[in-house]
Amino acid sequence: MIEILTPAELVRARAAGALVADVLQTLKGRCVVGTNLLDIDRWARSMIVGAGALSCYVDYEPSFGRGPFGHHICTSVNDAVLHGLPHDHTLADGDLLSLDLAVSLGGIVADSAISFVVGDSASPESLAMIAATERALAAGIAAAVPGAHTGDLSHAIGTVLIDAGYQVNTQFGGHGVGSTMHQDPHVSNTGRPGRGYRLRPGLLLALEPWIMADTADLVTDPDGWTLRSATGCRTAHSEHTIAITADGAEILTLPTRVAQPTS
Questions:
Q1: CATH code for the domain in which residue 19 is found
Q2: Which residues bind substrate (predicted)?
């Protein structure tokens, strides 16, 4: 299913995007050495419910998971890159943490992910990986203009990641959003320009480049959800929801506040 939003629905999409972005920024500010992943999930739940929204993950039960997911946010640490199931784990100095959040507000979904290093011991490798996903995301967004094809976005994203020296896994990638979290069209993190669905104003896409330091292969935790690098190497993940407009892409998940560390 591919949904094209009306102007009224796009207004609600902006509200959902702002909520997702601000929750992620608030959580980033609270994530310090000693923070438990279950606390992050609890904080996310409180903010989502307080805003009158719904997490798209609680009842999420796709064919590839062991569902339902049962938590409000994905928390992926170090070698975990996607669908990190919150559990009783305490963050350490230098951990690379990815938070992935999708909420429905007013019947419209927004989806975003950020990666950052906890504490003061950020390795050059971790910072380089995060920066590569952010550059790739920016390139994909720049290519998202009316009349372009999803393959143009995939090509832009993949070019950045491959030029930075990373392998690209194509099992999971970007996707359409709307009244539900995962819709067509699929947007792979590498591809050929000029191929795929032609973009139209009113289309919402979640673009999400993610990489692993030295592999393209994933393994699944016994929890049935958390996806990790097959070699145990570090990973990073960045994601925005964008709306295709007559003038190009509008990023809906930009934060309206800056993350502030806890005192």
A1: 3.90.230.10
A2: 83, 182
* 83 annotated ligand-binding residue: yes
- Ligand-binding annotation for 87, yes or no, is no
Neighbour order of strands in the sheet with 218-220? 80-82, 227-229, 218-220
Is 182 within any annotated ligand binding site? yes
User: Does residue 2 sit within a domain?
Assistant: no
Q: Could you write out the DSSP letters of every residue in 155-193?
A: HHHHHHHHHTT-----SS-EEEESSSSSEEEEE-SS--T
Quick check: is 258 in a domain? no
- Judge whether 250 is annotated as a binding position: no
Nearest to 119 by CA among 238, 31, 36, 41: 31
Domain annotation covers residue 170:
yes
Domains: count for the chain: 1
Please indicate if the annotation marks 208 as binding a ligand: yes
**Assigned domain for 256 exists:** no
Question: Residue 227's pLDDT is what?
Answer: 97
* pLDDT tens figures, 9-45: 999 999 999 999 999 999 999 999 999 999 999 999 9
Whole domain around residue 207: which residue ranges?
Answer: 7-251
* Among 179, 178, 143, 180, residue whose Cα is nearest residue 158: 143
How far CA 1 is from CA of 56, 175, 179, 231, in Å, comes to 17, 11, 10, 36
Model confidence over 54-75: pLDDT tens digits? 999 999 998 888 889 999 999 9
Q: Is 221 annotated as a binding residue?
A: no
What SS3 class is residue 54? strand
Is 223 annotated in a binding site? The answer is: no
